[in-house]
Q: What sequence folds into this?
């Protein structure tokens, strides 16, 4: 038994007891678990203390990995035993009770050992690089992210899309080449695609492209090569998003958190939603 005490909390590490509070870990290998997480919350007045406490917590629980600490929150990848990962999650959920941490768990292949041999916790300008000024980040943080939708809710929104809906793909150019979401639209009220996207659809779908466009609308692709290109795209297309209902999606969810907040902070009357946890 080992005890960790942080932020005024004290919890015992007992494998079965802790794991029973974290159902995702029950059937995972006892060898090692990989944890990916992010949290958007205002840490502007306590960056150093959060960094120091994260280092101590991870070292006491023998967790390896990398954590980024910025004024808008945390973003990390850790590995360790199932019991210690579960303990870390329990302590963190206890600390940030008013904020939902996005947790994702995975295991290593059987022939792999732990990836990390130490933990690194560093203060960074941003937890995901948008290259915003401090004022822009705080404005976005104040606006807050878009409303989270489950996959089922997201599908229902697309299936019942109205004319004011915009579906926005927040992934980068290389990821959108794989494909984008589509949704049915009223053929009597077709939204006109951007010229470059219409040309792209013609190239990808050939002679059937225009016919299919009369029935289905593809997600807007900002054609960003890096996430830091996203603010420029929004700033150049403010009229497109005004008074619209915007549904966005990305790979793992972390980019949508800041992208949706930036859109809300800079577009008048935009009603913004995001696919919870990404695709």
A:
């Amino acid at each position: 038994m080992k005890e960790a005490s942080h932020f005024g909390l004290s919890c015992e590490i007992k494998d079965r007891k802790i794991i029973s509070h974290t159902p995702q870990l029950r059937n995972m290998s006892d060898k090692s678990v990989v944890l990916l997480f992010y949290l958007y919350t205002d840490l502007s007045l306590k960056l150093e203390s959060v960094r120091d406490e994260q280092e101590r917590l991870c070292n006491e629980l023998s967790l390896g990995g990398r954590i980024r600490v910025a004024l808008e929150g945390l973003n990390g990848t850790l590995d360790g035993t199932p019991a210690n990962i579960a303990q870390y999650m329990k302590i963190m959920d206890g600390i940030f009770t008013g904020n939902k941490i996005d947790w994702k768990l995975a295991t290593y292949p059987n022939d792999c050992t732990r990836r990390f041999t130490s933990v690194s916790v560093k203060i960074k300008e941003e937890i995901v690089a948008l290259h915003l000024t401090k004022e822009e980040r705080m404005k976005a943080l104040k606006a807050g992210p878009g409303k989270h939708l489950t996959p089922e809710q997201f599908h229902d929104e697309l299936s019942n899309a109205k004319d004011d809906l915009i579906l926005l793909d927040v992934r980068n150019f290389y990821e959108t080449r794989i494909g984008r979401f589509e949704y049915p639209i009223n053929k009597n009220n077709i939204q006109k695609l951007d010229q470059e996207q219409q040309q792209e659809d013609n190239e990808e779908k050939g002679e059937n492209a225009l016919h299919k466009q009369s029935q289905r609308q593809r997600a807007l692709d900002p054609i960003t090569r890096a996430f830091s290109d996203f603010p420029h795209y929004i700033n150049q297309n403010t009229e497109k998003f005004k008074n619209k209902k915007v549904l966005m999606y990305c790979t793992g969810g972390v980019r949508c958190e800041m992208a949706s907040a930036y859109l809300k902070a800079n577009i008048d009357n935009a009603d913004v939603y995001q696919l919870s946890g990404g695709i």
Residues 157 and 247 are 9 Å apart (CA to CA).
